[in-house]
Every structure is written in C-alpha cells, then in structure tokens.
C-alpha cells in the first residue's frame, strides 16, 4: 500500500504524524542556540618561544625554523605561519576543521618536545597554547571618572569590573585597555651608580634577595602550633630607598635611595584608550566560542546597570561599540522576510487556485515542513543563525512545491467530477512518483555542499542540510497530510467565483496558446539544440564579465580604522597622530553619521607604532550613506595625516577581525630579494585605481642599534652576553624585577634608567658591569655600537620566508579582479621561481573557487544518477538536466545587470538552481511517460503532458520567485548577502521556466522517441513470467 493510500484510509494517523513533527520541531527550535553565523572556528595551536637578547635573525634560524621543520610533519595541518621578532618567536598552526583541538595540541607538544633538543640552551622552553576560537571583542565598555585618579580608575576597572564581567555566563575573557598601572618606579641614576661602584646586576640581585616573604618553620608546644614567616618589609617608596645594595671598599653601605629616584605611581605610559574625545579605561568583552552573542551582551549590560549604584562618586560606566546591534537587527530582518515570503507564496497559490479552502492546504503544510526541519538541526547540533534562517526562506518556495503538485492534481480530478475522497486518492497516487523524484533530486543537489571545505563549506553545510531536511519533510507531509486535508476540506465541483472564473478563463487561453506554440515549435527539430549552444556561449561570456569575490561587501554598522606609524615611532608620537586622526573624524560624529569613536593605541595585535579607531555608525534606518561610502569619506578625510598610514576597513562577516581583504603572499629563500619583489608589486599596484592602502608586513625601516659584544674580551673578564643584554634592557627599556603588596594586591617594582641620561650613543658608556674579579668595566670597552635599519619581524608562511602585500578594494572592484591582477603582475614581472600564496579572506576565496566547481559538478552527477534510477533511462535525465544551463544563464544575467558579484552566497544559489529548475523538466517528462504507457501517441502524449503540467510548473515557479522577491528588496543589516541569493534565484528560475516550457518538449521529441517508461521493463518481465515453457 502506498503512503498516500494509507493516509487517506487512516486520516487520524496522518494528522497525528504531522502534529508530532510540529511538537518536536518547536521544542527543538526553542532549545537551539541563537548566533550570527554557524560555528566556523578551526583548531588553532600556537607555539611561543622567548629567547632574551637574541636578534630576530638568530631566533628565526635557531628556533623558528627548527620548530617549523618538526611541526610540518603533523597530519591535518591547514597552514603554518610564524612571526619572529627580537627575543620572541611565535608560530601559529591552523588545522583542518575535522581535527580535534585537544589531539592536535597533543601532536604539537610532541613535535615541540622533539625539536627542543636542538634549540639553544639559554632559550626559554616553548609554550604551547590552544586557541578555541575568534577573540573578537563583542562589546566595549568604558569607565570614566571626574573624581578618581587614573591609578584608582585603572585598579577599579581591573580588580572589580573585569573580575565581575569575566564571571558572567558566556564570557571568555575581558581585555582592559587604557589602564594606568600602579608600580613602584625605580629610576636608576647611572652617574650615581658609577661613583658608588653599583651595577644593574647588584640592584636586581638585592631586590630579589631582600624583597621576599619566606616561611620560617613551625613553633610547636603542647597547646598550639605556630607557623613562622618573615613578612615582606618593602611596600612604600621610603622603605625601598633604605634597601641595602652592597658594601663598598670604604665599609659604607650603598642603599637603593642613593642611586635611584623612587616613587609609587604610574608605569611609563604605553597604552591609550579614548571614547568620544575623553581618556577612559576600556573593557573589551570576548565571548566563548559557543556562546550566544545577544545573550552575552544582554548579560553584560544588565551587570553594568546593576553596578551603577555601587560606582565610586563621579564614575560613569557605559558601553560604546556593540556588535550585537548588527546580529539582532539582521536576525529581525530575516524573520520579517520569512513572514513576508510565506504571505506572498500563499497569495500566489490563491491566485492560481481561486479557492480559500484549497489555499488553506499549503498554508498549513508549509509551516509543518519548516518547523520539522528544526528536529534535524537539533539532532546535528546546529544553531538558529542568519544562514539557517535564510535556508528556511529559500525552503518556502521549495516545500510548497510538493503540496502544489499534489493539490493541483487533486483539483484537476475534482474538476472532472470526482468526489473529494476519490480525487484525493487518485490525484495523489498519480503524482506520487513525481513528488518523490523531485524531492530526491533537490536533496541530492544540496547534500554535495557538505563536501565543501574551508570556512565557506562549514557555513553552508548547515544551509544545505536544513534545506534538504525541509524538502524531505515536505515530501512526507505532501503524501500524508495534504491528501487527508484535501479529502476533508475541498468541496465537489462547484461554480468558481468571479475572480477565479476570470483567472481560469485567462489561463485556459494561455494553455490554448501554449498548445499552439508548442505544436509549431516541435515541427522544427534543431532549434532547441541551437538555443542550448547559444546559452552555453553566453554563460561563458557572462562568467568572465561578472566580478567575483568571497562575500558581498556588508554594511555591519561599523568601520575599523587602522593606523600605522613609522617603525620605531614612540608612544608619544603615536598618541599625537591618533589625536589628529580622531579630530579629522569628529565631523562624522557631529553630523550623526557616527554614534561613537573609540580610539586605542596600540592597535589590536600591533606594536607601539599602531593604533585603531572603531567608528560605530548610526543604525541603518537613520542614515543614508552606506558603510562603503563612509569608508571612502574617511579615506579622504585622513589621507594627508602626517606621519601615519590610515586604513579604513569594513569587517568581514566570514572571518571577522580587521584584516584587509587582499592578502597576497610572496615566498622565497631570501628577504632582500622578496622585499625587492614586494616593493616592485606595490609600486605597480599603486597605478590600479581599484586598490588602496597598499602595505607590506616587512620593511627595513625600524631604527635598530646593533650591539656587537666582543665575546672574547667579555669571556676573559668573566662577563656573559646575557649580563650585557640584561643591563641594557633595564637601563633603556625598563623591566619589572619584583613585586610589592598593597591592600592584598600585588604590584610591580619597575626598574629603569633615567630617561634624560640616555639621549645619544655615547651615553651608553655610562653603563658599568662587574667583572669576575669584582672590578667595574664600562660598556664602551665591551661592545661596538652600529645604527641600522631592520624589519620589526621576520615572517614565514608554510615554512617559507614570506612578505605579505595587503590592500583594500575601492568601489566595485572585486577581490577576484584584485587577485587576478596581482597574479598577472607576478607572471609578467617576477622570476618563475617566485612563490605565490594567499592569506585570510584571499585564501578562503581561492579555496572556495575549486570547492564550488567540485560541488556543482558532483551535484550534477548525483542528480543524473538518481534520475536515471527513477526513470530507468539515461536519456530522460539528460533531457531534464538541460534545464540547468538555462537557470545558470538567468542567474549570471541577473548578477550582471544588477552589478553584483559572484560570491559564496550567489554561488550556493547557483547550485540551488540545479534543483529548482530541474523539477519542471521532471514534471513534463514523467507525465509524458505516463501518457505513453496509457497508449497515447508519442507527439500527442508529449504535447498533452506539457500543457497539463503548465499550471503546476507556473505555480511552483511563481511561488519560488515570490519567495525571492523579499530577499531582493532586503534592506538593513545583512541585506547584501540576502540580495545575492535572491537575485540569482529570481532571475535563474524566471528565465529557466520560460525556456523549459519549450526546450524540454523539443529535446524530448528529439531524443526520447525510442525510450520507454520505468513500467515498460516491469511489463516485459511479467509477460516473460507468464510464458509457459515448451515441452
């Protein structure tokens, strides 16, 4: 018994099945987490090695390279990148998404342990850490005060607010910026030290030996036990000034106060945080990987409100940058689009059927199918996000198709005079095969998307699986609930209303005209193949003309303005430059375009010569210019800021962060040659008006003082290179040597030379070291000083020395065009052995190109094989798949006419078109086979099948197109990605439907005359079995 027969015979069973799907679907929906995008985090492990006193070049050769050689043998590595600077090596290993992070980290530790045997003895042990996800700040909280000192304000932010926020559900960490740290400043006077025979090593040793708290055993008696301890005796500047350093030859003692100025205060300023023109302390909230952004932000905001009564007098606590605004607005927009789409689809069905009762069926079955899909999402650990909600929007036009096909055929049987029960039985039975065939076809189209790699693959896996699940459930509902409702709700043949009769009359004329055109068209055999060849030619042409990118440029309501100063620029110099940039951007805040400006120095992940401005934009409904237009305005406003390079960037929805979209990597064996190549490319690329903010991550412009130690002389005197480096590090750079306690908190004792004492190279002669014999020797006698330019870091990419050229895109210039342009320059200008690679968004774009082509080809093969199995023919699937080029032509034409790019979203829509347009061919071919089985002549069966399936074909096409219209007209947060999908679906389905009505019949007549239906072989078998054997 067929499923539809069972449902009609047992209507309560069919109804209960649908109710259970709804109940469990709603429960699943309520349990699913809400987030912006699917989880796209890759397992990342970092290896950090400190080697005090070692130059970047020494570290690169003796540490970084040796570690990379071992790490490269680990399985599942996606790429290895490293950055080596003076004293530190940092290696990042990103693994394939399928790799377990804990297992990957274990493999890295084993590789590091093997490599450690060959590392320098005086290098610190490598530290291996796991990175569980993106560390983007989702909310910046600012604290300011009119009554608190900067030190008190920083202490309150760190010890009260940061601690409280970090305990909230979903918060991973809290970054504190702009905090003035409390330290005991010890400013060493080199002249006083030399006159008293004191060295940096003497002072360091004295501080570490005397400023300690130590256990002193236990005193026991018959009544009590006392734990003895020696408390730390230094907690104020006056105490530290009496700390004994050493006894000199005269017998007198030298105290710390004799050779240093000591006071409790701020650590030398090296961080700046400003909000809307005022110095503040900023607290950046980083969420846990799986946490819901909206819930975490709401939790933090509630904590801020709850903290208000307990703030110190004059303190103000608020928030500035809030990433949840985009997420909340985008999800709200998608929900609205979902509701509008359902309404439009129901309206189209009513127009075609002209009966409220008939329209009620899909109005019920569509929500059942959509809600049921959440059961699958819950079982697979997915979330409710912008991608899965977009999948449901697209599913509306698909899940309604099965109900339409069944309902339209039942309606046809009612028109012929059958009772509702008989019409439901015969009508559903007649199209059951077509429903299953189209469902399997659609599911087979979406499932190959699961095999896509990279971030794009992980994002659209949820899209594909949820869409396939909704379609599968719609098939089940169409063969169970739809016939049951039809048998109970629909009435026997009755006179249609005025509107329905007018529509039916118009449609009858359309069918008559279509029959006439079809008869005329079929008399010309070769016109259809010619049209197909022309379509393929136009597809090739349009594919070259349409720009390509990873994702559309999205307006996320924020612009990140990256600021980079000259290498070696001081903090004071960068602070002045950041103030100038902030002043230039102030008019944007004054005219309402920008709601807040958050300024930070250093920038995230950058050095002292970097800064960042977060420009939070007014909401989408309250401003006219797009984020891209504002970026252009910012570029113009800051173009001539002296001393810095200002780079405004739109954050990416895929990778997040603040990297430029173009990251073009040159690899090789020699940095000098690589730098020449990179500079040559940058010089030529400046002529390309589509590129801006071209920058390199390597430049020999950092002022460097090369201290060449005479190691033989130093060895004779009993002085190690480490002693030389430590003394210079303390006197010139400053170093936290020990700590002191105040009110239960630990603070650093910060040792540094007097700034005025070291202004020129000759001043370094005032630094003395103690020989093995106890005498003092000036640094002049041990080292040779040379000024030179150096790169701040030496970078590797996939174990090769590498320099990255980064750039932003201007106007409609696409990422694909930019990378093709740079690839062309490499082919024309650089030697054949130059190695080219990509990072960030550029890498994802390049990887995505091959993946989409593979998925598209796999989907075609799978669909062909499934249709061949269903039709029991290799000819019929070929005819059906001829509709695919027609859909592609329409989709590309839509992108070309609207000026949109071919990106990840539109490419996935192209894959969807395979299923959307082939279902029309399936309906015609399947019914033509049925009529031929009933004995109708070939031409008559073909024309009748085409005319009889005209209404369901147009109904399904119009519902799909209606579902795409709200996507095309989308506005507000995240509209760009929805528009990309909507345009491809709208244009592709429209053109393919129009041409399918003529191409499929023509190709069927040309190729299928000698084919048979699936039932033909069954009849042959039955006849063979009925034959009686001779004798």
Fold and architecture overview:
Keywords: Cell inner membrane, Cell membrane, Membrane, Transmembrane, Transmembrane helix, Transport. It is found in: Cell inner membrane. This is Multidrug transporter AcrB. The chain has 1031 residues and is an alpha+beta fold. The chain folds into 5 domains: 3-36 and 327-550 and 846-1021, Multidrug efflux transporter AcrB transmembrane domain (Multidrug efflux transporter AcrB transmembrane fold); 44-131, Multidrug efflux transporter AcrB pore domain (Alpha-Beta Plaits); 137-181 and 269-322, Multidrug efflux transporter AcrB pore domain like (Alpha-Beta Plaits), CATH 3.30.70; 183-214 and 227-266 and 702-790, Multidrug efflux transporter AcrB TolC docking domain, DN and DC subdomains (2-Layer Sandwich), CATH 3.30.2090.10; 558-701 and 794-845, 2-Layer Sandwich (Alpha-Beta Plaits). The protein has 31 helices and 31 strands. The model has no long low-confidence stretch (mean pLDDT 81).
């Amino acid at each position: 018994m067929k499923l539809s027969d069972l449902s009609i015979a047992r209507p309560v069973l069919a109804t209960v099945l649908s109710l259970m799907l709804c109940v469990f679907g709603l429960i699943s929906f309520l349990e699913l987490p809400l987030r912006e995008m699917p989880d796209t985090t890759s397992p990342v492990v970092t290896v950090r090695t400190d080697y005090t006193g070692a130059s970047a070049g020494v570290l690169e050769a003796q540490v970084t390279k040796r570690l990379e050689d071992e790490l490269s043998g680990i399985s599942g590595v996606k790429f290895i990148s490293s950055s080596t600077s003076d004293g530190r090596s940092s290696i990042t290993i990103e693994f394939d998404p399928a790799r377990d992070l804990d297992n990957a980290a274990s493999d890295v530790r084993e590789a590091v342990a093997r490599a450690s045997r060959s590392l320098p003895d005086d290098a610190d042990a490598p530290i291996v850490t796991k990175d569980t996800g993106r560390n983007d700040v989702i909310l910046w909280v600012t604290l300011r005060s009119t009554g608190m000192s900067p030190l008190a304000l920083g202490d309150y932010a760190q010890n009260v607010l940061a601690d409280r926020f970090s305990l909230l559900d979903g918060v991973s960490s809290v970054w504190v910026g702009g905090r003035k740290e409390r330290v005991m400043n010890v400013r060493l006077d080199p002249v006083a030290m030399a006159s008293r025979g004191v060295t940096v090593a003497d002072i360091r040793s004295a501080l570490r030996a005397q400023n300690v708290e130590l256990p002193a055993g236990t005193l026991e008696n018959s009544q009590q036990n006392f734990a003895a301890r020696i408390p730390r005796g230094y907690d104020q500047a006056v105490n530290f000034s009496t700390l004994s350093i050493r006894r000199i030859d005269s017998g007198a003692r030298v105290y710390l106060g004799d050779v240093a100025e000591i006071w409790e205060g701020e650590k030398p300023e090296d961080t700046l945080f400003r909000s809307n023109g005022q110095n503040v302390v900023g607290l950046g909230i980083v969420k846990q990987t799986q946490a819901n952004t909206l819930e975490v932000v709401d939790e933090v905001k509630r904590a801020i409100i709850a903290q208000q009564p307990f703030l110190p007098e004059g303190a103000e606590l608020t928030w500035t940058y809030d990433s949840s605004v985009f997420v909340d607005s985008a999800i709200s927009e998608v929900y609205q689009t979902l509701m509008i789409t359902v309404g439009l689809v129901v309206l189209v069905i009513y127009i075609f059927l002209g009966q409220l009762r008939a329209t009620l069926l899909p109005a019920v079955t569509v929500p059942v199918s959509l809600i049921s899909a959440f059961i699958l999402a819950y079982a697979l650990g997915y979330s409710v996000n912008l991608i899965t909600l977009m999948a449901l929007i697209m599913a509306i036009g698909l899940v309604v198709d099965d109900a339409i096909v069944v309902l339209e055929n039942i309606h046809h049987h009612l028109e012929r005079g059958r009772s509702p029960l008989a019409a439901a039985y015969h009508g559903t039975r007649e199209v059951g095969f077509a429903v299953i065939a189209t469902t399997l076809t659609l599911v087979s189209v979406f499932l190959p998307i699961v095999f896509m790699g990279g971030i794009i693959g992980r994002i659209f896996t949820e899209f594909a699986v949820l869409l396939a699940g909704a379609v599968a459930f719609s098939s089940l509902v169409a063969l169970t609930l739809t016939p049951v409702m039809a048998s109970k709700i629909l009435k026997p043949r009755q006179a249609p209303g005025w509107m329905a009769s007018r529509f039916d009359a118009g449609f009858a004329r359309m069918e008559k005209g279509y029959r006439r055109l079809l008869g005329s068209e079929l008399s010309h055999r070769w016109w259809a193949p010619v049209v197909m060849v022309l379509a393929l030619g136009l597809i090739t042409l349009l594919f070259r003309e349409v720009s390509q990118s990873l994702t559309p440029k999205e307006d996320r309501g924020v612009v990140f303005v990256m600021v980079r100063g000259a290498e070696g620029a001081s903090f004071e110099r960068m602070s002045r430059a950041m103030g100038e940039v902030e002043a230039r951007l102030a008019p944007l805040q004054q005219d309402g375009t920008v709601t807040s400006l958050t300024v930070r120095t250093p920038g995230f992940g950058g050095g002292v010569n970097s800064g960042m401005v977060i420009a939070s934009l007014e909401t989408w409904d309250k401003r006219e210019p797009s984020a891209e237009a504002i970026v252009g305005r910012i570029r113009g406003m800051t173009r001539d800021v002296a001393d810095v390079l200002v780079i405004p960037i739109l954050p990416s929805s895929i990778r997040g962060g603040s990297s430029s979209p173009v990251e073009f990597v040159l690899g090789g064996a020699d940095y000098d040659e690589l730098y020449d190549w990179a500079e040559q490319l940058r010089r030529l690329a400046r002529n390309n008006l589509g590129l801006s903010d071209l920058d390199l991550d390597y430049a020999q412009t950092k002022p460097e003082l090369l201290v060449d130690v005479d190691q033989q002389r130093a060895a004779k005197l009993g002085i190690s290179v480490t002693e030389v480096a430590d003394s210079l590090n303390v006197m010139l750079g400053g170093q936290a040597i020990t700590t002191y306690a105040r009110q239960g908190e630990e603070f650093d004792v910060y040792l540094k030379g007097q700034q005025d004492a070291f202004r020129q190279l000759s001043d370094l002669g005032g630094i003395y070291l103690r020989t093995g014999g106890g005498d003092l020797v000036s640094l002049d006698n041990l080292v040779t000083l040379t000024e030179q330019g150096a790169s701040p870091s030496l970078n590797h990419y996939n174990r090769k020395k590498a320099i990255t050229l980064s750039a932003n895109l201007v106007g409609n210039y696409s990422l694909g065009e930019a990378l093709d342009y740079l690839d062309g320059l490499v082919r024309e200008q650089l030697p054949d052995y130059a190695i080219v690679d990509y990072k960030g968004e550029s890498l994802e774009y390049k990887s995505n190109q091959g993946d989409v082509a593979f998925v598209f080809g796999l989907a075609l093969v799978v669909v062909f094989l499934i249709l061949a199995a269903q039709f029991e023919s290799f000819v019929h699937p070929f005819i059906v798949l001829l509709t695919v080029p027609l859909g592609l032509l329409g989709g590309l034409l839509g992108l070309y006419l609207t000026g949109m790019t071919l990106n990840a979203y539109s490419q996935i829509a192209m894959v969807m078109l395979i299923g959307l347009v082939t279902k029309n061919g399936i309906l015609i071919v399947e019914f033509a086979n049925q009529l031929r089985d009933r004995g109708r002549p070939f031409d008559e069966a073909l024309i009748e099948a085409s005319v009889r399936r005209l209404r369901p074909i147009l109904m399904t096409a119009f519902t799909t197109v209606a579902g795409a219209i709200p996507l095309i007209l989308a506005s507000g947060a995240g509209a760009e990605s929805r528009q990309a999908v909507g345009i491809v679906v709208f244009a592709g389905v429209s053109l393919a439907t129009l041409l399918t009505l003529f191409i499929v019949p023509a190709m069927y007549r040309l190729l299928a005359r000698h084919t048979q239906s699936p039932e033909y072989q069954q009849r042959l078998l039955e006849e063979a079995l009925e034959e009686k054997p001779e004798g």
